[in-house]
Specification:
Oligomer: single chain
Distance between the termini: 55 Å
Order of helices and strands: HEEEHHEEEHEHH
Radius of gyration: 18 Å
Strand content: 25-35%
Strand order of the largest sheet: 3-2-1-7-4-5-6
Largest sheet: 7 strands, mixed
Low-confidence stretches: 1-18, 164-175, 179-187, 200-204
Mean pLDDT: 77
Length: 207
Amino acid sequence: MQIKLGIQSCLSRARFSEATNSMLEMTVDSIRVSPMNYQRVVILKEKESDRYLPIWIGPAEADAIAVKLQELSVPRPLTHDLLGTIIDSMGGAIEHILVNDLENDTFYAKIAIKANGDVKEIDCRPSDAVALAVRAKVPIYANEEVMNKAGILLDKDTGKPLGQEASSTPQEEQAEVKPEEIKSMSAFTDFIDSLDLEDFGKQSGTR
């Protein structure tokens, strides 16, 4: 039994190591509000390049992230403060969060929690994952495939997104984007075009 568990543990670590090869570390650039419909967007920036990943989020989650980014104090713990406390009090620790997929205009994420020597990945919304990450001060990652689909570079003169040809990933190495995904992403592109992006990267916080 011990040998079997040891083999399973090694396989788990191997799969995790393989997965990290396609994980790009991100930072939280800012939170924006679209003037078109007042939708909130959290802007993640690739740490080793100038690519950005905009993810639309709810107002409550936007406030939860902004409170921590701006180091504001609140009289009572917010939901994400409570969740972090529960994880900690039960002997767990958040290792990192990962924006791991994008399907039909919906982003997906996972929280990696270490407990009893084992790391488990919990499915969640990216907004909740980022709100926890900024509190736990742990790395934020995005899968390279997600960045190839939705990552953007900005024209320094206009502040508008450049085309996919400007991506930092060579064209032949980019994940294939299906026609139906391109069609569904058109709404995403229109949404990003409505944002004021000219001061990206200058400072973090809400807009």
